[in-house]
Known about the structure:
By secondary structure, this protein is of the alpha/beta class. It has two domains: 6-104 and 218-230, Rossmann fold, CATH 3.40.50; 106-215, Rossmann fold. It has helices at 13-30, 46-54, 58-74, 91-94, 105-115, 127-131, 134-140, 151-163, 172-187, 216-230, and strands at 6-9, 39-42, 79-81, 120-124, 145-147, 192-195, 213-215. It has a four-stranded parallel beta sheet with strand order 5-4-6-7, with helices on both faces. α1 (13-30) links the parallel β1 and β2 (39-42). α1 (13-30) crosses α10 and α2 (46-54) packs antiparallel against α3. The protein starts with 5 loop residues before the first strand and ends in a 6-residue tail after the last helix. The model has no long low-confidence stretch (mean pLDDT 96).
Amino acid sequence: MKPLHIGIVACSAEGAALCYKTICVEGAQLLRPHAHPEISMHTPSLADYVACLERGDLPGVADLMLASAEKLARIGADFLICPDNTIHEALPLVLPRSPLPWLHIAEVAAAEAAARGFQRLGITGTRWLVDSEVYPEALTARGLDYLRPNAAERAETNRIIMEELVYDTFQPDSVAYFQRVIARMRDEGCDAVILGCTEIPLILSDANCPLPTLDSTRLLARAALQRAVQGTATEQ
């Protein structure tokens, strides 16, 4: 059976590119050499999303996501993913009006955390993401505990993400800062950390992180691959 057509509702370029590349590269493991499902991606200007986030306009975020969803549906996508954790806060406003089903990045990551036996997860990401209930809801639904960064950590990690990572800038001092934040989470009882910004996996992995990582970007890409190959677009 031909794999389903994956639609990517993109927000920031680096995270979307990593997700896209993962689907293309790892598709061969499930299909045949060089094969991957059909993929289409739509990306409005990141500035449009940031403007909505800055003023707390979740309906505006939802409208941008829906505009992408509708365009992807028109060109044949069977289901949708969004390789951006932050804007998932608006997904409840999107789903009732969406022309296609979605995979939820936080639910995918929470499922992986539960499968690997983790109990208390550190949450990293933009200030909008860590202030939201996107991950707390997904984790508590599976009986998992979590820890958010403190206020100072949220401010600095957000700065690093929005001023460096989204622009393909990776500074050693910024990597070290994330490592210190995650080490504190480890010291406060976390047994793994969610890389809850799709750019964070570009600077952190199990190889250089104080805790085991849950790479939300690649986990979403792999979940999309599985969905496409299984040939069913029912919502997770």
